[in-house]
Amino acid sequence: MDNLMQALKGEANLAVKPRPYFNHSVSFKGVHDRKARTEMMEKVGLNVFFFPADMITGCDFLSDSGTTTMTDEQWAALHMGDESYGSNKGYFMLRDAVNDTFGQGFWNEPTANRPNAFLFHQGRAAEDALFSVLGALGEGQIIPSNGHFDTTEANIEANKIEAVNLFSSELKDPNSTSKFKGNIDTNRLKTLLAESADKIPVVYITITNNTGGGQPVSMANIKEASEIANAAGKPLFLDSCRFAENAWFIQKNEEGYAQKSIKEIVREMFSYADGFTISFKKDGLSNMGGGLFLRDGGKFMQSYPQIPDMLTNLQILQEGHPTYGGMSGRDIMTLVVGLKTITRQEYLDARVQQVIDFGQAMVDAGIPVLTPFGGHAVYLDVNRFFEGTNMQPGDFGGISFTAILLAAYGHRACELGYFAFGSYNGETNEEKFPEVNFVRFAVPRLRYEKTDLDSVVEAVKEIYENRDKIPPTDVIYGKELPLRHFKARFEFKN
Ligand code: F0G
Questions:
Q1: In 202, 237, 313, 383, which residue has its Cα 20 to 30 A from 265's Cα atom?
Q2: DSSP designation for 488
Q3: Are 396 and 320 contained in the same domain?
C-alpha cells in the first residue's frame, strides 16, 4: 500500500479534477428544434431578452445575475424564512453575515439612530436610491468610475449626474499582459479631481469590472484610488456585485496575497471603501436582493449627514420597512447562507476556473475573446470576430451573432457592445459607438458542467468559420431609446 501510494500522484495532480459539489436536484429543459427556435427568434425581433427561456435547449449566458443554482443549505434556509413585517429573524442574521464578510462598520445597531445599511430588492434599486438623493442635492455633479455598469450609468444620468468611465489603458491594448485590466486609470482620476473635485460626490470602483470585460481590479489600485479620492476629501465606493471573484484574482495574481484567505482579502478591499452598493444576485448567491452600505463615521456620512434619513424615507416609500427593504424573509435567509458559501476557497477555485477553462477552450478553437479572462464571463471581441468581413459598426454584428447562436444552437449570449452601450441621435442621424464592443457569455454560478460549455465552444467555432455569411441587422424599433438593448427589435438585412 505504501509503495502504491507513493507511485500514485493523487487527486491534486489530475488534469481533470472532480467538482467540489454534486448536483442536488436537476431541472429538465424544454425540447425544441432549430426550426421552432428560428421562428421564435423572428417573432421576438432578434432580441434575445424576449426569447422564452423554456426554449433554450443549450446554455443560457444572458446573465449571471439571479441565475445561481442554490445549494441544499440555501434551500433548507429558505424554509426557515421569517416573513414578519418588522425586524424578521433573518435581518439580524444578515447583519452578522455582512459584518463578518465585509468587516465591521457598515451596519449599525438598528436602534442606533444612525442608519447606514439599506436593503433593496436588487442592486439597481440601491443605486437609484443613492443617486437620486445625491442628485437632489445639486446639479452638475460627476461620478467617475473604472467602468459603470449599464443600469448604474443609466441611474446616474437619470438623476442628472454625469457618469464618467476611466477605463485603464491596458483594457484596450491587445498586447497588454496586465492581470488587472479592470483597474481605474488613476492618472485620469487625479486630473479629473484636480479640475472638478467640487463636482464629485464620490469615486466609484466596480469589482470586477463588468463593463470593462469582467476584468478584476488589483488591491493596489483600490488602495491608490482611495488615497487619491481621500486626498481630495472624497469618499471611495465599491460597486461590489462580484467582490469574491475579484478577491480570488487578487489572491492568485497579486504579490503578497497568495497566503491570505479570501475573507481576509475581501475585508482589506472594503477597508479602503467608505461605502458600497451591491446586487446580492451575483456574489450573494441569491436569486434576489441588493443593498447600499455606508461606513459609520466615514467621509460620506460626514459630508452628507442628511442622506441616511433621506434614504430611509425613500426606502419606506418605495421598498418596505428598512428591516427588510424589498426582500422577502426567505430571500434574506438564502442570502445569509450564500454569503458564507461565496468566500469558500473550493467554491471560488471551481467557479472561476470553470470560466477560465471555458475562455481558454475558445482561444484554443481560434475564437477571438478578451484575455485574460474575468471571473464571471467570457467576452467575445466582436470587432476582431468580424475582421475581414463586410460587417460595419452600424450593422450591429454582435446582435446578428447572438440571434444566430440562439436560433441555430440554442445557446443564449448577450450583446454588450456597440448596440447596448451606443446611442443614436435622431436629429443628426448619427450613432455614437462606445469604446468596447463585446458579446458576453456570463456563466451562471454552480449551474453548468464542462460538457455544456464544450458544446458552446463548438457552436461558436462553427459560426466563426462562417462569419462572412452572417447578415447585418436593421434596427426596426427602439434605436433612439435609452437602455435600447432591453427593448429594441431587429431584422436581418438580407
Ligand atoms: N452593478 C453591476 C456591476 C452589475 O453587473 C449589475 C447587474 C448591477 C450593478 C445591478 O444589479 O441587476 O441587481 O439590479 N448586472 C447584471 C448583469 C444584470 O447581467 O451583468 P441588479
A1: 202
A2: -
A3: no
- Whether residue 117 lies inside any domain: the answer is yes
Torsion sign over Cα 358, 265, 282, 124: negative
Q: For the chain, which ranges sit under pLDDT 50?
A: none
Residue 12 φ then ψ, to 5°:
-65, -25
Q: pLDDT, tens digit, for every residue of 195-226?
A: 999 999 999 999 999 988 899 999 999 999 99
Question: Which atom of ligand 1 is the closest one to the Cα of 289?
Answer: 13
215 shares a domain with 107: yes
Q: What is the pLDDT of residues 133-154, one digit of tens each?
A: 999 999 999 999 999 998 899 9
Whose CA is closest to 409, among 31, 28, 34, 40? 34
Instruction: Say whether both 85 and 190 belong to one domain.
Output: yes
What pLDDT does 397 receive? 98
What is the reported pTM?
0.95
Ligand 1 center–CA 316 separation, angstroms: 23
Substitution candidate for ligand 1 out of 128, 280, 281 with most atoms within 8 A of CB: 281
Pick the residue whose CA is nearest to atom 21 on ligand 1. 123
Residues with CB under 6 A from ligand 1: 63, 65, 122-124, 149, 151-152, 206, 210, 239, 241, 279, 281, 290, 442
Contact 319, 311 (CB under 8 A): no
